[in-house]
Amino acid sequence: MSTAAPATAALAIENAEVVYNHSVQALRGLSIEVPAGKIVALLGSNGAGKTTTLKAASGILPFENGRVASGRIRFFGEDILHWPSHRLPRQGLAHVREGRHVFEDLTIDENLIAAGNALIGRRGKAFDSEIVYEYFPRLKERRKQLAGYLSGGEQQMLAIGRALLGQPRLMLLDEPSLGLAPLVVSRIFEVIRELNQSGATILLVEQNARMALKTAHRGYVLETGNIAMTGPAAELLSDARVRSAYLGDGG
């Protein structure tokens, strides 16, 4: 009998255990599924394992002395656990990491060119920066400006824009609203919804739990490296435990 993940799963993480420095356990048998075409929110307190989950999916744990010690990770049914990290963006998996990580000494245009060069091999995709500028007109106005002189919101737009170049099938977004002004946060979440409506699947880690659950179709709540709760986002949004722990409603 086949044990392959369902065809509708853009990402399936099965019983994953992650360790750092050969000893520190960050994920403890974690299993989540992100259906194709949906937005899934990953919630939890600091240190619960949210960012580690994204890093495991995008293959970058080895750069931080971490590894998936056991379990499986599947991307549209393919086992990607041992794929090199550079292969994944070329297959349509984009990871926008917390902290933006733009090239501060390059202009916006040059950042996008660098991202396009890294995506060489993404078959059948044209790396046209106009795709990015359609979503973020403010970046087009400043396209010759060094990224280091952009506001935090503009840098976040650029970080998401670089990922958009390859028209990814799955986007991993880590704290896209962190430290941003409310108007910018609203635009970021508008873009997330627009991307999903155009066919992108999104796994979202977000400290603004209310906004995340209002945007997502489904949610998971992590505690100490494992799943404590899961369900449709609307149900989690109305759950008393979630409201008390993550939405600031109650003691």
A few lines on this structure:
It contains ten helices and ten strands. The protein is α/β, with parallel strands linked by helices.
Q: Termini separation (Å)?
A: 48 Å
Order of helical and strand elements: EEEHEEHEHHHHEHEHEEHH
Low-confidence stretches: 1-6
Q: Please, what is the average pLDDT?
A: 91
- Measured by DSSP, the beta-strand proportion falls in 25-35%
Helix percentage range: 25-40%
Q: Any idea what the shape is?
A: globular
Q: What structural class do you assign from the helix and strand content?
A: alpha/beta
Number of DSSP helices? Answer: 10
Largest sheet properties = 6 strands, mixed
Secondary structure: number of strands: 10
The neighbouring-strand order within the major sheet is 6-7-8-3-9-10
The radius of gyration is: 18 Å
Overview of the structural elements:
This protein has 10 helices and 10 strands. The chain is an alpha/beta fold. The longest helix is centred in the last third of the chain and has 16 residues. The strands form 2 sheets. It has a 6-stranded mixed β-sheet, with helices on both faces. A 4-stranded antiparallel β-sheet has the order 2-1-4-5, covered by helices on one side. The N terminus is likely disordered. Helix 3 runs parallel beside helix 6.
